[in-house]
Design brief:
The structure holds three protein chains of three kinds. Chain A is α+β, with helices and mostly antiparallel strands. Chain A has one domain. Chain A has helices spanning about 15-25, 30-50, and strands at about 55-60, 65-70. In chain A, helix 1 packs across helix 2. Chain B is mainly α. Chain B has a domain at about 40-135: 434 Repressor (Amino-terminal Domain) (Orthogonal Bundle), CATH 1.10.260. In chain C, strands 6-1-2-3-4-5-7-9-8 form a nine-stranded mixed β-sheet, sandwiched between helices. The longest helix of chain C has 21 residues, at about 30-50. Chain C is globular, with a radius of gyration of 17 Å. Residues about 50-60 of chain C have low confidence and may be disordered. The chains are: A alpha+beta, B mainly alpha, C alpha+beta. At the A-C interface, helix 2 of A face loops of C.
């Protein structure tokens, strides 16, 4: 759906910008694309956590779960 | 988002696609898919009884009504009623999958119990028979059961 | 929000003639209504008329309306539909964020994952002989590729195919099968690389 695009100026520290650029290279995406993905992921996670679900990382070898986010 | 697709492209691809099935994704689990026939109908009845009993008791352990459960797992109410009460009912694979997720039960075993997957051995079936035999309630009616029963009997009497 | 509409064509199978149709960049109330009032009852009817046994007599035990309410406003999820003769002919739901490519040459990269893609019952030869329209699958795949390119994912696609559709994704779409996925009811998982996406587009040109 073509929604009107709004422009935002983002002020990042040097380190934050460096992290963003690293992610861009690693993921082969533009800065805008990386930040869009981050926003989408953040929304997905928030919706699940609000529902009462928990977000975990699972250690691939030990299968141990460590909680990532708590409500 | 507008896409550049020519009508010629559409038609060329349609001819290549022909009559192919295209469904993908768990949400599209196909109601026309053919499942392997159940070899032993008697065995399947007991299995279904155990499956239905299991779901009912797990549901009641959580204090949920059928409607609550249906809502939580995104399944029709009548499918859950049929699972719990109709020994001939063949549950939909997606339903079993959703129930397994919700109750944190192993999917493969649940599919076998529901008659949707070939049993790997007799052990599960024997356990199912044992469970079905032991889980038939003999306790007195609870106040809720009593109330629901009386209300329904009243409706039946009114409809005569 | 009104979806963007791209004019397309479907092939009428019976008379082998093209018919004008539309590709919508969204799943709207119209699609949900069509699914409720046309797809679902038609599926039930087709199953009954084929004299299927109790085992096959299942209706889809989920509710698109409820599903779409849950998806409302989620940035990661995009819907697409095909409309012809004012009736929804195909539906697709994709996720742009939750999945990453598994195929070796693309490992870890973002892709468009097709959560759901389905043809209207009357377009399926397993239910109707002859089916009404052909081409729905290819056009929706093309839409997914276009979205993938727009996102910067270069055409990468992923999906879990229903068994009877494996052939379409292997032969027509030229995707790579990475095997059956036990986490997804043993459905086969397919991926399309940027190169395969370009080949798919070239096929119809």
């Amino acid at each position: 759906m073509t929604s009107a695009k709004k422009t935002m100026t983002l002020n990042l520290t040097d380190i934050e910008m460096s992290v963003l650029e690293d992610l861009c290279i690693k993921k082969d995406l533009s800065k805008t694309a990386v930040l869009r993905q981050a926003l989408r992921l953040y929304q997905l996670v928030e919706v699940r956590v609000e529902k009462g679900d928990k977000l975990f990382f699972e250690d691939d070898k030990t299968k141990e779960k460590a909680e990532v986010m708590m409500l | 988002m507008k896409i550049e697709i020519s009508k010629a492209w559409c038609l060329n691809m349609a001819r290549l696609e022909g009559n192919a099935e295209i469904g993908a994704g768990l949400l599209a689990v196909d109601p026309t898919s053919h499942k392997a026939p159940i070899a032993n109908p008697a065995a399947s009845n007991v299995s279904h009884i155990a499956f239905g009993r299991l779901i009912r008791l797990m549901r009641r352990k959580e204090g949920l009504t059928i409607e609550n459960l249906a809502d939580k797992v995104d399944i029709d109410v009548d499918e859950i009623v049929s699972i719990e009460d109709n020994i001939h009912h063949n549950a939909d694979p997606r339903t079993v999958y959703q129930l397994a997720n919700h109750f944190k039960l192993p999917k493969a075993e649940l599919l076998q119990l529901a008659g949707l997957a070939a049993p790997k051995n007799d052990a599960l079936f024997n356990e199912a028979v044992r469970f079905a035999a032991r889980s038939d309630p003999t306790a007195r009616l609870s106040p809720e059961e009593q109330a629901a029963l009386e209300a329904f009997v009243a409706v039946l009497s009114k409809n005569k | 929000m009104t979806p963007d509409v791209t004019p397309i064509a479907l092939l009428n199978v019976a008379n082998n003639m093209p018919e004008d149709a539309e590709l919508w960049d969204g799943i709207t109330e119209k699609q949900i209504t069509d699914w409720e009032t046309k797809w679902k009852p038609d599926l039930k009817r087709a199953q009954l008329s084929r004299n299927v046994t109790a085992q096959l007599d299942q209706s889809q035990h989920w509710d698109w309306r409820k599903k779409s309410q849950a998806l409302e406003g989620m940035l990661a999820l995009r819907g697409f539909s095909i409309v012809c003769n004012d009736i929804t002919q195909g539906l697709m739901l994709v996720d742009t964020t939750s999945k990453r490519a598994l195929i070796e040459s693309q490992r870890g990269k973002d892709l468009v994952y097709i959560d759901y893609i389905e043809n209207a019952p009357w377009n399926r030869s397993v239910l109707y002989n002859p089916p009404l329209y052909s081409g729905v699958g290819s056009i929706l795949m093309r839409a997914a590729i276009a979205l993938s390119e727009e996102e910067g994912f270069k055409g990468r696609i992923g999906l879990h195919s229903l068994p009877q559709a494996d052939k379409f994704y292997i032969k027509s779409c030229g995707m790579t099968c990475l095997g059956q996925d036990p986490r997804y009811h043993n459905l086969r998982y397919f991926e399309m690389t940027p190169e395969q996406a370009q080949e798919f587009i070239n096929k119809g040109s």
